[in-house]
Specification:
The complex is a heterodimer.
Chain A (H helix, E strand, L loop, with lengths): L1 H33 L13
Chain B lengths: L7 H5 L9 H48 L44 E8 L13 E5 L3 H4 L4 E2 L11 E5 L20 E6 L4 E12 L18 E8 L6 E9 L2
Parallel strand pairs in B: 2-3, 4-7
Antiparallel strand pairs in B: 1-2, 1-5, 3-4, 5-6, 6-8, 7-8
The chains are: A mainly alpha, B alpha+beta.
Chain lengths: 47, 253
């Protein structure tokens, strides 16, 4: 029983981490370091 | 008959598992850390190469279909049917901010107008440099705008007008419309079709790599020839925002 709970909690934690990566971390990394085609206002200031 | 109590350490651990030495435990922690880091990098590759493309390609397809059907005003918002408020592709409303800013996810973009179509041609050849398909140019170059496709710098000229029609596009994410911009050659043609359906043919003059701060490329006449100019900008090198790759083309008389 305890093992099952731990398994579910672990999967939920992984899902939360992946969600945060895809919605916050990766877009920021992408815009800051990888892919900003706009001239004159590099980085997040392009917004 | 007497029984001996098991050692204390053995009672607190599963049978057959001895306590590992510090060196081995450290190695295990380092191993799991590397596995986690590798997983994050692999997830980023999936994000950059596939995840961001999904919504952009869907959006571009929807915009192109709406453009061809003359129904652009109804094609606003995400193409997956999610409600997007009253954000629409209103031709006379030059919305410069897609509304989402840096926080907008690929599925939440919408709002700026589509200003033109871009096609790349190589004279005397069936090959189409840069992009095999027609690209819909969005009005504006905010993060949200560029998630939908190439974006028109708002303070620059419109297609065919005197001045500089400047367009920015992603190179490695969000549909990567300018992934192959480095393959364009002088003499290649860039066809721009405006909202009225008029086609303007620009001939590629040159390409160069500049600093992100080199705003002169967006000036009225960056080539100083006095002719209407089309300027395309994207990041350079691929997978880096350290520099910008810029391609200049001039309107054919």
């Amino acid at each position: 029983m305890r093992r099952a709970v731990l398994l579910v909690l672990g999967l939920v934690a992984i899902a939360v981490v992946v969600y945060l990566l895809f919605t916050i971390v990766f877009p920021w990394v992408d815009q800051t370091f990888v892919s900003d085609p706009v001239l004159g206002t590099p980085g997040p200031a392009a917004t | 008959m007497t029984t001996e109590a098991p050692p204390r350490q053995a009672a607190s651990q599963p049978p057959g598992r001895a306590r590992r030495p510090w060196g081995a435990r450290l190695l295990a922690v380092a191993g799991w850390t590397l596995i986690a880091a590798g997983s994050v990098v692999a997830l980023y590759v999936v994000y950059a190469m596939f995840f961001t493309d999904l919504a952009t390609e869907r959006e571009q397809r929807a915009l192109l279909e709406a453009w061809e059907a003359g129904e652009l005003d109804e094609a606003a918002g995400p193409a997956d049917g999610e409600a997007s408020g009253d954000e629409g592709l209103v031709p006379d409303d030059p919305t410069l901010d897609g509304g989402g800013g840096a926080e907008a996810s690929a599925g939440e973009v919408g709002g700026a107008e589509a200003v033109a179509l871009l096609e790349f041609h190589r004279p005397g050849s069936d090959e189409r440099p840069v992009a095999a398909s027609t690209l819909v140019v969005i009005g504006g170059v905010t993060v949200a705008d560029l998630q939908r496709g190439p974006g028109h710098y708002p303070d620059t000229a419109m297609p065919g007008e005197d001045g500089n029609f400047a367009v920015a596009g992603h190179r490695v994410t969000y549909g990567r419309p300018f992934f192959r911009l480095d393959e364009i050659e002088p003499g290649d043609e860039i066809h721009v079709i405006d909202r009225a359906g008029e086609r303007f043919v620009y001939e590629v003059a040159s390409s160069e790599v500049v600093s992100p701060h080199d705003g002169w490329v967006l000036g009225e006449d960056p080539l100083e020839t006095g002719r209407p100019t089309l300027t395309l900008t994207t990041c350079h090198p691929r997978f880096s925002a350290a520099e910008r790759l810029v391609t200049f083309a001039e309107l054919r008389p």
